Amino acid sequence: MLSLLGKIIPVYKEVICELKAAGVSWIQFDEPTFVTDPDSHKLQAFVEAYSELQLSLSGMSVIIETYFADVPAEAYRTLTSLKCITGFGFDLVRGTKTLDLIKDNFPKGKYLFAGVVDGRNIWANDLAASLCTLEELEGIVGKDKLVVSTSCSLLHTAVDLINETKLDKEIKSWLAFAAQKVVEVNALAKALAGQKDEEFFSANTSAQASRKFSPRVTNEAVQKAAAALKGSYHRRSTNVSARLDAQKNKLNLPILPTTTIGSFPQTIELRRVRREYKAKKISEEEYIMAIKEEINKVVKLQEELDIDVLVHGEPERNDMVEYFGEQLSGFAFTANGWVQSYGSRCVKPPIIYGDVSRPKPMTIFWSSTAQSMTSRPMKGMLTGPVTILNWSFVRNDQPRFETCYQIALAIKDEVEDLEKAGINVIQIDEAALREGLPLRKSEHAFYLDWAVHSFRITNCGAKDTTQIHTHMCYSNFNDIIHSIIDMDADVITIENSRSDEKLLSVFREGVKYGAGIGPGVYDIHSPRIPSTEEIADRINKMLAVLESNILWVNPDCGLKTRKYAEVKPALQNMIAAAKLLRTQMASAK
Hints:
Its cofactor is Zn(2+). Its EC number is 2.1.1.14. By secondary structure, the protein is an alpha/beta fold. The protein contains 21 helices and 15 strands. It is 44% helix and 12% strand. A 5-stranded parallel beta sheet has the order 1-2-3-4-5.
């Protein structure tokens, strides 16, 4: 990628020239790559790039911003050595070690943009603590060179708490969305200048104390149970090959078994039913009847298609994280707390404010209902603890892994109840496993250790005959494949088609995988319907690197966003491809 710098620099020069002509006097360059352990080659390229831009930038004030983690010492020295830069911005919420570097050596005469207000989470700032930090920094860089700032852009948090008219009053006092964070920055700047708003600071101190000591935050039983997990090693007692043999006898599945990932199309009618039930426009009885009818339709369709392991289609679920968060203690939800997820897709992340537990079963009724409609195996569908954690606004008063262990214990309770209800296949999705990987490589091993441990906690007590699936999608998993293997799932379904089968390269390179695996055979994010021949060709590529007795056939991901007019023929072709290859394999024996 660095080879493209020569082509990019002239474009930057043009943009800078246009900004100058428009009267812009300050310009900010975001360089978060500085927190990702840049090597000497990348640091040298950085110095050369800004040297090239120096003449164009003359007469302008220039800021370089980094965020989301600590800046390594060598990168910090390189960054702060640049003469053409007016000021440097650092994330001092997630970059506490960077604070030590600043205290040790900050270039004289330069501005420091001190990111003390968290731009990535929704908790109110501890103003008293931040003011202490700022006063210390002021003594280092000078009164006129210190700028109070957010740790990063406010893109990652919801817009304004004023829109949350139904949020619990006490919990609301603990929060700050983007608009409130701007107020916090302003209040800190004024306090630093000797114009402290005592009333505002006092209210903040009260809110901080309320959050710290509120009985709704702490559950001693949950804390104790989670603490007991830290030194333990949770894994199912039997190895995966023995479990797969027991499951084969129990489930009686063919070679190249077929399944889908979980969700079926969320129609306009289905969304209307959920919306009306939530608004109390229809009764609980009417709602249950409507959802049962949808499940029955999905089950019958899968039986007609001759899919081997069925799903209930998740018609009762709005979002794979929100659905579970609404039924767990320690979670709060906003009405308008939307944030961008990717592209034009926005989500409303749950807020984890306290210790997490499961007051009652969450999915048993619907999974049992679906299983009663068919003699084929029905998958119980759960979202995994790491994904729930990574797709929520997480409490910042304890380490993330402790919260994750609490969620894992809640999911463990659900797994055990599904098993008791006669559900023999249980899928625990961990779509966001890689998403939580820290930016600093030195922190990868610790994260993967507790993330994998959290998954294993959820199903460590399951019987050998209970088949545990997990699912991952839309990321590069090759570099963490050994951690995925260490999750010890019986079957992993994983995106493969959208990424042009890059996943298979890891198996071509000699990685041995003995559990069941279903690399997706077609991309569900496209309305295009793949042919039987195309899918069969994909499966054959998989068979070239994976044993036939562990290979599953399934789409890349859930079918929630597709229409039935696309889903039905695509699945028909998928089943036909699996059957074609079964016949060919039988003939070859």
